[in-house]
């Protein structure tokens, strides 16, 4: 059983849609929330967006349906393969690449209008050095004045009373039950082993999935500081009550002097 992010999502790729009551509906709902934010930040739909932690395509597919020109990448080869399949089945032209956000050289050089990193992907990076390296790579993919948008769990609130379980959550799939359950096994005051359990009822009985990965709870001010040091300005946070998205969102603007930040990234 893999614990690194790539292996975790390789194992989960075939079941990832089961995290949602209705993945298709969630895909469209999320796009309808973050799409207008990108339009306000970057201009009208049709602008280029790079999803640097695309998973199986939850945001990339929805944004492409809205008319954005989307490119996706993910550290998980299995997730990328499924994202390609999902895009093809919807007749969406989205190039996907297997790439760690700390090293985005495999993604063809481009100056995107926006880069997104949603669904708590950044806390898979377990130290500030890795976060800084990712921020530098993301900045290098953006045109000057471009927008970076990411979402994380609300660790500012979570760390006040760290949870150990979430769920169970019960769903129904055409009369058959599906149960989701999480265990957060804290290793220290920031890192926790994440245990995901999915139990689903089938015609042949119950099937069980158990996946594990490690997260590092990172505070909003820490992410803001790293972004500021890696070539971003106008950094601001939008909480769910304001944005309509289910996690806190950070929005930042790519500053000038790009070559300086590329050099710093390569040297790190």
Summed up, what is this model?
34% of the residues lie in helices and 32% in strands.
Question: Explain this structure to me?
Answer:
Residues 259-268 have low confidence and may be disordered. The protein is 34% helix and 32% strand. It is of the alpha/beta class. The two termini are 31 Å apart. The longest helix has 20 residues, at 23-42. The strands form two sheets. A seven-stranded mixed beta sheet has the order 3-2-1-4-5-11-10, sandwiched between helices. The protein has a four-stranded antiparallel beta sheet with strand order 6-7-8-9, covered by helices on one side. A hairpin with a 2-residue loop joins strand 8 (191-202) and strand 9. The protein has helices at 5-12, 23-42, 58-65, 77-89, 128-140, 155-158, 220-229, 240-243, 258-267, and strands at residues 48-51, 69-74, 96-98, 112-117, 142-151, 165-173, 176-186, 191-202, 205-216, 232-238, 249-254. The chain folds into two domains: 9-154 and 218-267, Vaccinia Virus protein VP39 (Rossmann fold, 3-Layer(aba) Sandwich); 157-216, N-terminal domain of TfIIb, CATH 2.20.25. The protein is built from nine helices and eleven strands.
Main sheet record: 7 strands, mixed
Percent helix range = 25-40%
Shape: globular
**SSE string:** HHEHEHEEHEHEEEEHEHEH
Low-confidence stretches: 259-268
CATH superfamily of the largest domain: Vaccinia Virus protein VP39
Structurally, the number of domains stands at: 2
Q: Looking at CATH, which topology of the largest domain would you report?
A: Rossmann fold
Structure annotation, total helices: 9
CATH architectural grouping of the largest domain: 3-Layer(aba) Sandwich
Query: Regarding CATH, which class of the largest domain?
Result: Alpha Beta
Structural class: alpha/beta
Strand order of the largest sheet: 3-2-1-4-5-11-10
Separation of the first and last Cα atoms: 31 Å
Evaluate the radius of gyration.
18 Å
Mean pLDDT reading? 93
């Amino acid at each position: 059983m893999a614990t690194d992010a790539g292996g975790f999502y390789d194992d989960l790729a075939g079941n990832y849609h089961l995290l949602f009551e209705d993945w298709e509906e969630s895909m469209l709902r999320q796009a309808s929330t973050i799409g207008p934010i990108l339009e306000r930040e970057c201009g009208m739909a049709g602008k280029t967006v790079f999803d640097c932690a695309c998973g199986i395509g939850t945001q990339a597919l929805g944004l492409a349906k809205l008319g954005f020109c989307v490119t996706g990448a993910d550290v998980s080869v299995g997730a990328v393969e499924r994202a390609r399949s999902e895009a093809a089945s919807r007749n969406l032209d989205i190039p996907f690449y297997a790439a760690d956000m700390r090293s985005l050289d495999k993604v063809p050089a481009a100056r995107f209008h926006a880069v997104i990193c949603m669904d708590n992907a950044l806390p898979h990076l377990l130290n500030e050095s890795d976060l800084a390296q990712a921020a530098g790579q993301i900045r290098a993919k953006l045109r000057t004045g471009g927008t970076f948008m990411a979402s994380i769990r609300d660790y500012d609130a979570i760390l006040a009373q760290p949870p150990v379980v979430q769920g169970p959550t019960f769903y129904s799939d055409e009369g058959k039950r599906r149960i989701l359950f999480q265990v957060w096994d804290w290793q220290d005051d920031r890192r926790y082993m994440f245990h995901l359990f999915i139990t689903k009822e089938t015609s042949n009985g119950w099937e069980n999935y158990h996946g594990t990965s490690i997260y590092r709870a990172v505070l909003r001010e820490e992410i803001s500081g790293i972004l500021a040091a890696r070539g971003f300005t106008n950094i601001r946070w939008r909480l769910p009550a304001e944005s309509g998205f289910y996690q806190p969102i950070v929005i930042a603007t790519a500053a000038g002097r790009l070559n300086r930040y590329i050099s710093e990234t390569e040297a790190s």
